[in-house]
Design a protein that fits this description.
Layout: E1 3-9, E2 12-17, E3 20-22, E4 28-30, E5 34-39, E6 43-51, H1 53-68, H2 84-106, E7 115-123, E8 129-133, E9 139-141, E10 148-152, H3 158-164, H4 171-188, E11 196-202, E12 210-214, H5 219-238
Helix pairs in contact: 1-2, 3-4
Length: 241
């Protein structure tokens, strides 16, 4: 399992993913689940993945191969697509095709594979956009009413986002919100694990503005986690019923 979250704010986008992949309690590995594509000054795209590793890796490989193809066109490359909506459609179609191919191979064993993705980005002259791509290839888009999207093991980290994240939230507070959302998930689900990948895309920067790999034992993350736990305990103690 995994947990990935993306925030769409007026000042930019904040993305966070874990890296744990497990196929049982005795088969736990670390794989990157956040991927970025840039044409600096023209467009930036980030994709986060959750679900079957075979599906997500094959999907990302096909998308990257299309980007690197010297004969790529706006119909084949996400770095040449005319709009971010078209990018979401291309990612969705690729994901659905890969899932169908894998399912066909697994059908003899009565098994299947599934995956979902978050696509974030902006092109020159366009608005920032954030999409959640479902396994079937269809998708939904973040809005001012719902300025964040999650995939994977999302239920533990959702309450804090519901309470504090608004389109006007600053990027600094947004980073804190996604990290605390992840901290809640790490504490409640062993299938989500360190290290973490954090990315910030400022509005109109048309590139990834900040990246950070947070390893297990990171002192800053640990201090934040402990401060949040103390704040919750203090708040709990002060409530009278």
């Amino acid at each position: 399992m995994t947990y990935c979250v993306g925030l769409l704010l007026r000042d930019g986008m904040v993305l966070l993913s874990d890296t744990r992949t497990n196929a049982g309690l005795d088969n736990i590995s670390t794989y990157r689940k956040m991927f970025t594509f840039e044409d600096p000054g023209e467009r930036v795209i980030a994709i986060m993945t959750a679900g079957s590793l075979s599906v997500t890796q094959t999907t990302m490989a096909r998308l990257r191969e299309a980007v690197e193809d010297p004969e790529s066109t706006p119909e084949t490359s996400i770095l040449k697509a005319p709009t971010l909506l078209k990018v979401a459609e291309m990612v969705g179609s690729t994901l659905a095709q890969v899932r169908a191919d894998v399912d066909e191979k697994l059908s003899a064993m009565n098994q299947g594979a599934s995956a979902s993705m978050i696509v974030a980005g902006q092109r020159k002259g366009g608005a920032m956009r954030l999409f959640l791509i479902y396994p079937e290839g269809n998708f939904i888009e973040a809005t001012e009413d719902t300025p964040f999207l999650q995939i994977g093991e999302h239920k533990y980290g959702k309450p804090i986002l519901d309470r504090v994240v608004k389109p006007t939230t600053s990027l600094a507070d947004a980073k804190k919100a996604v990290l605390l959302s992840m901290d809640s998930t790490l504490r409640s689900n062993l299938s989500v694990g360190m290290p973490l990948d954090l990315a910030v895309i400022e509005r109109d920067a048309l590139r990834v503005s900040q990246t950070r790999r947070i390893e297990a034992g990171d002192e800053q993350f640990r201090a934040m986690s402990e401060a949040w736990s103390k704040a919750l305990r203090d708040g709990f103690a002060q409530i009278n019923i």
